[in-house]
Amino acid sequence: MMWGRLAAVFSNEADHRRLVERARQALAPDVFDFYAGGAGDETTLAANETAWRGVRLRPRVLRDVSRIDSRVRVLGRELPAPVGVAPVGYQTLAHPEGEVAMALGARRAGALLTVSSRSSRRIEEIAAEADPWWFQAYVLRDRGLTRELVRRAAAAGATAIVLTGDTPYLGRRRRDRDAGLIPDEMFGVNLGPGFDRALAEQAPDVTYADVVALRDVSGLPVVVKGVLRGDDALECVAAGAAGVWVSNHGGRQLDGAVATAEALPEVADAVGDAAEVYADGGVRTGVDVLRALALGARMVFVGRPALWCLAVGGADAVTAGLTELADALTRAMGLAGTATTAEITRGLARAHPGTTVEE
């Protein structure tokens, strides 16, 4: 049966669980656990999904929703829907074409792609199939490697640099059992021959000064990913960030960190109109996307769900999945009485029982 003829996978949580189970069957156990697992006891991993369910919506009635317009402008570019792909590393573990297939699938769906520094295909190969796309950058211990990666991404057509700020060290993930799962040739596909793996690990001394450094090297706007606090968001904006990405790294870093849905309103309130706000983490349905937009996000990204699509059906499944997620958002918008994304305002959501998020 062709992927496009299967049931939708983002209409509700049960459909998404079926997608995950198909991916589990398609992948080797160590690979599935590498992608699916979180840090520590995985409390943040679980909270990311459940926190969205605690966001209650306050739909409007008697609004003309005969035509729904899900378009959004992100860093000056108009996109057909506020749905994008978060950075996920080493995608050839999930599919032979890896990030190239992900890029093709996202492009066909009109979705914004974020390419990971830890990709398992060369930046230029991915860029040949990607449009539009951002490049996610870790600041490495050898900052010369970082500068070279960012320059290559900009030359290949990236339109923004995403500085991931929540990984000075890697979280301990109990489901990562195979130390040899990422061989040197995969780890260093974009680093060239003779690289020192220790110097290519994330630097623990990343600061707000690196926002300026990446902007100067690339000539592109910089988005800071991994922000969970309003005061940190303000520091990012003061340092020159064009966007702030609310994320806890999919629950893979500090276990016990606040869930994205809980952190998003504080960050959005702090930033106001000074920068754009994006979010990822536990988003599984079109209603979740609507919830995120109502709490202040302009753009919502999915990581694991896109990866599961890649694993079970390559580029075609990525296209179908992302298209269905955007369509599910459109249906949710109509039911909420919002004909455009501009009408998804803060009064549409109640973040916690008994507390309305004001307009």
TrEMBL record:
<keyword id="KW-0288">FMN</keyword>
<feature type="domain" description="FMN hydroxy acid dehydrogenase">
    <location>
        <begin position="8"/>
        <end position="354"/>
    </location>
</feature>
<dbReference type="InterPro" id="IPR008259">
    <property type="entry name" value="FMN_hydac_DH_AS"/>
</dbReference>
<dbReference type="InterPro" id="IPR037396">
    <property type="entry name" value="FMN_HAD"/>
</dbReference>
<dbReference type="InterPro" id="IPR013785">
    <property type="entry name" value="Aldolase_TIM"/>
</dbReference>
<keyword id="KW-0560">Oxidoreductase</keyword>
<keyword id="KW-0285">Flavoprotein</keyword>
<dbReference type="Pfam" id="PF01070">
    <property type="entry name" value="FMN_dh"/>
</dbReference>
<dbReference type="InterPro" id="IPR000262">
    <property type="entry name" value="FMN-dep_DH"/>
</dbReference>
<comment type="similarity">
    <text>Belongs to the FMN-dependent alpha-hydroxy acid dehydrogenase family.</text>
</comment>
<dbReference type="InterPro" id="IPR012133">
    <property type="entry name" value="Alpha-hydoxy_acid_DH_FMN"/>
</dbReference>
<protein>
    <submittedName>
        <fullName>Alpha-hydroxy acid oxidase</fullName>
    </submittedName>
</protein>
